[in-house]
Amino acid sequence: MTTRRAKLLQSTCRVIALRGVRGLRVEDVAAEAGVSKTLIYYHFRDRAGLIAAAMEYVNDRAEDYAHAADGATGREALLRQLVGEFQDESAVRENSAVWGEFRAAATFDDTLRPVVSAATERWIVDLAELIEDGREDGSIVGRSDPRAAAVRLTALVEGLSGRWLSGLLSTAEARSHVSDALERELPSGADA
Q1: What's the whole-model pTM score?
Q2: Do 103 and 117 contact (CB within 8 A), yes or no?
Q3: 10, 49, 97, 165: which has the highest count of C-beta atoms within 10 A?
Q4: Which are the contacts of 11, defined by CB distance < 8 A and separation ≥ 6?
Q5: Which of 163, 161, 159, 156 is nearest to 179 (CA)?
């Protein structure tokens, strides 16, 4: 991704985090980025293209900060993915806020539902694969359906996210809830 495009997407995320998706105006993104509206239209064609690119940017950024180290067991990688959503870093908090805004806006905007659905599906599939990896390496036992477990775990993270962002839960508390839920949902091989 070009530096200019990344800067525009960073600005878009800041505007979404502050004003929501429904309040997103190309003029506000241009002002935040210190560029002309024409440049935004050049890179993203229209507002819908800008929104779709912002969702992809948020997902890519999350993959970067929630990625487990090479050699991790399936369970370790799964836990890292889940607790990685709760970090005391501005990019992580902004990502979480943007995700929440996308989900909320999709309630009223049918055009956003496919974008949110595709991103959510990508996350669920990634987690289900990590669950399968954990079963193969013995770090996860039990017979839960990997996809169903991934749906429940992602829903938990999304629910905790709103409380965490609003200061109702600390980062440590949110991470602890996720870790406890993971152990209940998918017992570790060590406990078998």
Answers
A1: 0.87
A2: no
A3: 97
A4: 29, 32, 33
A5: 156
Measured over the CA atoms of residue 163, residue 123, residue 181 and residue 79, the dihedral's sign is negative
Q: Which of 2-11, 58-67, 117-126 is least confident? A: 58-67
Note the pLDDT tens digit of each residue in 161-174: 999 999 999 999 99
Give yes or no for a contact between 142 and 149, defined as CB atoms under 8 angstroms apart.
Answer: no
CB count, 10 Å around CB of 158?
Answer: 16
Q: Let me know: does 92 contact 65? Beta carbons within 8 Å.
A: yes
Rounded Cα distance between 100 and 114, Å, is: 15
Contact residues for 123 (Cβ-Cβ < 8 A; gap 6+): 59, 150, 154
CATH number for position 31:
1.10.357.10
- Angle CA(149)–CA(178)–CA(56) in degrees, nearest 5? 70
**What is the extent of the structural domain holding 41?**
3-191
Q: How many domains does the chain have?
A: 1
* CA distance readout (Å), 8 to 2, 28, 95, 138: 10, 11, 15, 44
Please tell me the total number of residues recorded for the chain in this structure: 192
